[in-house]
Amino acid sequence: MRFVIVTGMSGAGKTSVLKFLEDINFFCVDNLPPALLPKFAELCYEQEGEIERVAMGIDIRGGKLFNDLFQVLFSLQERGYEYEILFLDASDDVLIKRYKETRRTHPLSKGGSIQEGIQKERAMLKEVKTKATYIIDTSQILTRQLKEQINRIFVENQNFESLVITIRSFGFKYGIPADSDLVFDVRFLPNPFYIQELKEMTGNDEPVSSYVMNFKESRTFLQKMVDMLEFLIPLYIKEGKNSLVISIGCTGGKHRSVTLANALYQTLGRERHALLLEHHDIEKDARHKK
Asked: Which residues lie across from 80 on neighbouring strands?
């Protein structure tokens, strides 16, 4: 039986994840007091195959009962019950924004600020996070992308890396995305914008991508990016980094950067890394002309 404990920061997406797990035939229970976990696990294992997937949502809403979690996990191990911990995280700024948008109160911020509640929660969850089987940072990912991550782990059974890599194209004339970790400038490549039949197309169109990648400089640059990233990614994972944003820019974010971002996404391979692909400015030229 697969027994998954879903925990993490309040507002990081635990409710959504439990819904996704339910959609793939997990039996889900939310906010069960940790002290009841061993008995619940025992009941599930006694079903003799009737329940094959279980997900438990546990967080600091349990108050003082949450402090029993480590003792409970030790008890599960002693009884031979195998379990996985899925920890959901997000940056403080993102969590604060989510709370303000939903007008909810943080469970630990009664009488204080949301920021104070988040800091208290991080301190409480620090040790749990170190024991997590999977860590997903939801700061920069959409709901559908989070669902893809869950499916990758629990349906496709792919090897999971806590580092989620976002490959993003952008246009320098609109500014470098603020959350970029690595920025590559491909404005040195020939620009399809100046070829009439390619001007209104994008790097998602085959004629544009073929034009850009037909140059030796493009193929060499792509290979050198891949070589560097294959060197850096294991080091980032070892360091405990959860999110890596690779931004590739050209002038307008429509032709060259889109082509190279697509090529990098395909070359790194989703089967080896947890990858997301975004084209940040691909439609902005069209909007600005209106």
From this structure: none
pLDDT tens per residue, range 40-60: 888 887 876 678 899 998 887
The topology (CATH level 3) of 2-154 is: Rossmann fold (3.40.50)
SS3 11: coil
C-alpha 17/C-alpha 156 separation (Å) is: 16
pTM above 0.90, yes or no: no
- Give the best-scoring range by mean pLDDT among 128-142, 167-181, 228-242: 167-181
- The answer to whether 4 touches 10, Cβ cutoff 8 Å, is no
Pairing of strands 182-185, 274-279: unpaired
- The predicted-structure confidence for 220-265, as pLDDT tens digits, reads as follows 999 999 999 999 998 988 887 878 999 999 999 999 999 999 999 9
At 66, list the tokens. Answer: 């949450």
Task: Provide the terminal-to-terminal Cα distance of the chain, rounded to the nearest Å.
Answer: 57
DSSP string, 30-47: ES--GGGHHHHHHHHHTT
Amino acid occupying residue 225: M
The identity of residue 219, as a single letter, is R
Contacts of 237 (CB under 8 A, 6+ apart): 161, 162, 163
7 DSSP β-pair partners? 87
Q: What are the residue ranges spanned by the domains of the chain? A: 2-154, 164-289
